[in-house]
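TEACHING EXERCISE
Course module: macromolecular assemblies
Task: Read the component lines below, then compare them to the predicted structure of the full complex.
Student: A.B.
Group: 4
Components provided:
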Amino acid sequence: MKHILPLVIVAVTAALIALALAGAGGPAKTFGIVSGSALPGFTPKAATPEQAVANLLIDVQRRNWDRAYAGLAKTDNRADATSFKRDWTGTDGSLRTFSNLEAYDARPLHATADEAQMRLQLRWTTPVGPIQEVRDVQVKREGDAWRVAWPQIQFPSVPAQVIPVNYLRWDLVSGGADDEWGSRSIDAPHVRIISMNAVDSADGSIVMGEVVNEDTIPAFVNVNATLVDGRGNAIDDESSFDKIAHVLLPKQVSPYRIDFPNVALSKVKNVRMDVKASLVPASADPVIGAMDQKIETDPQGRNVLRGQLLNQSGQTVNISHVIASFYDNSGKVVWVSDGYVDRALLPQAAEPFAVEIPRALSGKVQNFHVVVNQFSLGKS
Amino acid sequence: MACPAVPCLAQVAGLRPPASVAAGTETSISTTGSGKATFYLAGPSTSTKREVSLGEDVPLPPADVQSAGRYVAVICSQTCQSAAFYVTAAKPSTLSFLVHPSRVPVGQSDAVSGVALPFDRFRNLVVDPVTIDFHWTAGPAPLMSRPMRTRDGVAWFRASSGKSAGALEVAASLNDLSAHRVVRQVASDPCHLRIKGQRTAKGLVVETEPVHDCTGNPVPDGTIVTFTATEAKGKSTVDAPIKQGIARAQIAASGPTVISVASGIVMGNELRVEAQR
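Instructor-supplied answer key:
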């Protein structure tokens, strides 16, 4: 009798494993095409373009680079093994180097007997949250198998050079513990909210606007909002979290956005804003320009603000974060959107960025302002 | 007095504390009566109990009267009697000086305030009126001086910021005591922000003229100036810090371009640059 329960557990576990392996590649599954042969160490010949893509992405998920590369189509411009791997794993401490391919969705765009084009939606897990990436790939038939064509990727190549930079930074000196009372106080930076707009969205209420550092020293800024109902009771309070450039240099303006999921704006009578600023050591470098910004429609039909980030300094920026505020024709902030760039910004090199604009607002947007947050490894 | 046959009962007749005592000064309380009694002293930060002989002075060492305020002396034998007296602050030995703010834009009226509080060596606030001299110095030159009499132990001032950026040293002095604080007067918002630009092989290099506020003070290095270039293929923006008085940015633009500039909420001029030939 005492052996029945362990036996049942083993049997159920085995059944569930078998079910998972068999069911994962089922046709009804739209998120992550996985063939039924996703057993470790064995990938069959792809009989369809979908299976070729699935084989490749399973190998990528397992970081089995040799087999993934061996499975690529042997085209003239096939990526070399090193750049293929770099394309997936990232370089220079970029966001991609800290990311994992969690799931994917592949849809055929068009197909012939020997060639197909597939659109991949890749879902990455990253330290800053999930990131979606869309890639279109060619799949070719070679003999009796389909293989993904992976062209050579052009990584920015920075020539050897000397870039003179007059570094400017602010350091914070705290007085000693034995200092006299009244001699140690340094005022917090003066920071002001210059605009605020509360809107209703499908997910709840959103409070957004812009904040400026009016002082002559850097400030670490956080904007908090409290929603208040008609009786004066607080409904919810939230902070801008990563939807703001926290370190603001003197006279710098940053958008902010505070999301209140599941709170309808109709319940809100008042919004209490609170901006907190503290002194922080900071550097005025690197300078990153946002070039060629333009609102376009992406291949999925979404409205996006696209552009190029250009690192004008001499140091590598590992992770860059774009925050954009969008204005209507009266200059009111109607939306704040943000996005991370998964490649590192090399000195004097450009990387593309894109942030999404809700479809309902695309007609309203007349102007926009982009701020770039940057994170470099080993620096605050 | 001898009490040979019957138990001796002490008689409390009276307590005579001093009218006023300076903090940390040795003093005594005289008693009348005869016999032994218990003496209690309760003050703002002290309480003592000891056996004393009635009819003799009860000495109070300096350590018992260091805190200014109201003290109650109680003496008990069969009955108790009490008397109150006050300890006042001793002569000033330190000056606490608070100045706000630590940074102030130039040309602001009533923007700087200061409060000075004299304390004795036991950290008692000296509430007796004393005259504190406030001095303002910018660079090597003294700006002005103002004597202020303390009221309830406090002297204060309110002043406008000057017109020149730099360190403003504010001193409060009382006899040979003094305390110094520094208020950094900083440039105000940029004024008449103007840019110029030129085409290079890589696009456009735009830079500001030396950035000053409306009273001619250079705006501090590190202040962000936003350059915006608008051309047919899109808009480019660069947030560039002022370095050595000038903000400079490189913008990749090849067609006819309109460049505008702003710093915080201050706008500058617009520059139109023709297409690259």
